[in-house]
Amino acid sequence: MQTVLYDSDGQGALSGDLPGGGDLMSVKRGSYVLAAACIGADIVHVAARAGGQLIGASDVPCGATVRIPISYESSRGLEIRVTRHDPKSTGSWYVSVNRASWVQTTSYAF
Questions:
Q1: How many domains does the chain have?
Q2: Cα separation of 73 and 11, whole Å?
Q3: Would you call the peptide bond into 61 cis, given omega within 30 degrees of 0 as the criterion?
């Protein structure tokens, strides 16, 4: 999943077990697309915040890739949080911060 969704010209990526999240402190200002995916759960919710403001969010059905456009204009870091709809579900998630022009060219299978 990481190799397929990662943009070598992007601003980094985070992954982990559900629920989870993290901070990317070196993101440059600009327009990006978050490529979000998960496995194991039915649906997760991905939210991106900068300077305490919500700048992008979406529900992500596991087994699919969801593009979440964001405009990052902060210098305080990009906060990513991934929550599950079903508190009993388990699984893994991955979010990469890609150029706005990034297009997924390869699919992946679970």
A1: 1
A2: 14
A3: no
